[in-house]
């Protein structure tokens, strides 16, 4: 399946104009920053999924490894324990696309076996074995850009040209994927807001997201509740909704295909309002 086929709505409602798909974040790590502890248990996670579906989510993103700046690494065994039972339960209970946020080949392989619809890798398949696992499957994969590693990436981000450097990274990774047997049509690109970028670099990327459209692949934008909003506005994580919605709209206006968010209901509303204006442009 190509990423575009994956993203195509099966039967668009008559009044529903095209809008990006909303990816709802389901964090299952105990230390996840925004929903910390709140959805830690299995039942609460499933209840959160049910709520997001009722709020209009298109894809559920399950993250088992905290990628927070400064985070420590999690073992594959721990990640598998957190992610796979939840994936199985979601697939058994609901009809919804599920994305697995992982950088580990073993987790990718198990996730694909148990019905994951997309692999979301903040390390863009650079870890050992990941290319081979994806090549043996046909699921779409999101390649995210990150400068440095979570532990230290926010220390001193540097680019010659933030758009140009990230675009070159995408071109290189697309080529590596194709050589490994992963068709270009399966790829989704994500500039990785907050992953080794200053506040100014994050906003330049957001303003110029459209410059990645010439690569001809779907774009994913993930800014929800991030420091680029909190630091600009001096807001705590639970006070970043207005900022997050604004960034979602700015990304959608530049043809982003997937918007990754915590606040599904509000984002779907905002995107519906935007979509209603698109036909008159
Ligand atoms: C703590 C801090 C926990 C930051 C989690 C995060 C992205 C992602 C994440 C993204 C894609 C978050 C991040 N961010 N995957 N995973 N794109 N594709 O804010 O921007 O959710 S983790």
UniProtKB/TrEMBL annotation:
Belongs to the DHPS family. Coiled coil: none annotated. The keyword Glycosyltransferase does not apply. It catalyses: (7,8-dihydropterin-6-yl)methyl diphosphate + 4-aminobenzoate = 7,8-dihydropteroate + diphosphate. Keywords: Folate biosynthesis, Magnesium, Metal-binding, Transferase. This is Dihydropteroate synthase. It comes from the Bacteria. Its EC number is 2.5.1.15. Pfam families: Pterin_bind. Residues 20-272 form the Pterin-binding domain. GO terms for molecular function: dihydropteroate synthase activity. Its cofactor is Mg(2+). It is an enzyme of class 2 (transferase). Pathway: Cofactor biosynthesis; tetrahydrofolate biosynthesis; 7,8-dihydrofolate from 2-amino-4-hydroxy-6-hydroxymethyl-7,8-dihydropteridine diphosphate and 4-aminobenzoate: step 1/2. The keyword Manganese does not apply. InterPro entries: DHP_synth-like, DHP_synth_dom, Dihydropteroate_synth-like_sf, Pterin-binding_dom.
